[in-house]
Write the structure tokens for this entry.
Amino acid sequence: MWYFVSPEIVFGEGALDALDELEGHRALIVTDAMLVELGLVAQVKSHLDKAGIETHIFDAVEPDPSVQTVRRGVEVAREYEPDWIVGLGGGSPMDAAKAIWVLYERPDLDPAEINPFITLGLRQKARLITIPTTSGTGAEVTWGIVLTDTEEQRKMGVGNRENVADMAIVDPCLTVGMPPALTADTGLDALTHAVEGYTCAWHTDMTDGLCISAIRLVFEFLPRAVADGSDIEARERMHNAATCAGLGFGNAMASMAHAMGHTLGAIFHIPHGRTVGIFLPYTIEFAACAAPDRYAELAESVGCHSDAGEGKTEVALALAKCIRDLCREINSPTSIAELGIYRTAFESALDKLVDDAFNDTSMVTACRGPSYDELRQLFLYAYEGRPVDF
Ligand SMILES: NC(=O)c1ccc[n+]([C@@H]2O[C@H](COP(=O)([O-])OP(=O)(O)OC[C@H]3O[C@@H](n4cnc5c(N)ncnc54)[C@H](O)[C@@H]3O)[C@@H](O)[C@H]2O)c1
Ligand SMILES: [Zn+2]
């Protein structure tokens, strides 16, 4: 037995108009300061005004939200008593909004106690709307919440199926102002979700099609969106890709590139999509022999051919090469060294990187689970930019 969860999804240009019809009294908008500055919060607020809903803005969410920020947001929610929580932004504000909502409803819980095995009994006080302004995380449709424990320099995944949003509003107009590097980073996150959702041990018939659809869209439209941010067709298709990939991996699981990316990002403060995008080709090369058919299907779906032969493993390996080519086309780094991390700093962090990645929840579903030593090797190969050959 398995589950597939999803919010109601309103998508396409002008989807924000759906807010005009919302029924309620008070909305707490959870967001970040940059989105206030860019005017995106004002846009959302004006739609809620039309609906006759009062708003309060909590704009203190930092990239990779901390448990402390969530606690502050919960205090604000308790005082304001909203009947809607609106998570507006990239994955950081949307994840913070999910956690704030859960703890507003369940003041007896600690963030680390939000897990899939308990009954939360949400929706007694409020409901949740998610509105992504980046095209990447899929957090608008997933129930997973990624918080950072700043003391331990560690990301932790929490969440429960109940805390999936009631409604996700996927409007590409909110993404046209993303600069090229943010477009590239978040697009690679969507790509990694699609590939890992399709190849992880928990993929299902329900999620496969969504992942294939997303990977095709990313290969076709991400270079266009990076080259010309005002290309609204590319923006729209990438926004849809991110949501499809979110439904795909969110109802299956992520895998090794996420386990490795989480740890590198938490220690060196690198954007999530950039780190997982770097590790993706290395992890494909490592795991291809364990699921050659799955990777080959993905390669074929994006017209990726092998020069080394027509066997499934060769075709699977060609996918890694095509992803590196895509990264170069959109000016994204393909090795840890290219991130500007000095070898000495990398080597002093290596034990912690391997330890944390080995224990990351996304590692459980890897189709070829690495040994501790293999994982160490993978980090070293990814530092130097050497294709994996073991
Ligand atoms: N819950 C999930 O399923 C899930 C999945 C993947 C990643 N995540 C988490 O999501 C977070 C990353 O989210 P993200 O990559 O979307 O970035 P983000 O939310 O951290 O935002 C990064 C920066 O982009 C800016 N920004 C956002 N939208 C913009 C726009 N339209 N124009 C200009 N600037 C804009 C923000 O203000 C911020 O400064 C990480 O914490 C990651 O762990 C969660
Ligand atoms: Zn991700």
Observations:
- The beta strands are 8-11, 26-30, 54-58, 84-89, 127-132, 144-149, 154-159, 167-170.
- Residues 32, 34-35, 38, 63-64, 89-93, 95, 133-134, 136-139, 142, 144-146, 174-175, 177-178, 182, 186, 189, 250, 271-273 surround nicotinamide-adenine-dinucleotide (ligand 1) (CB under 6 Å).
- The CA atoms of residues 216 and 301 lie 7 Å apart.
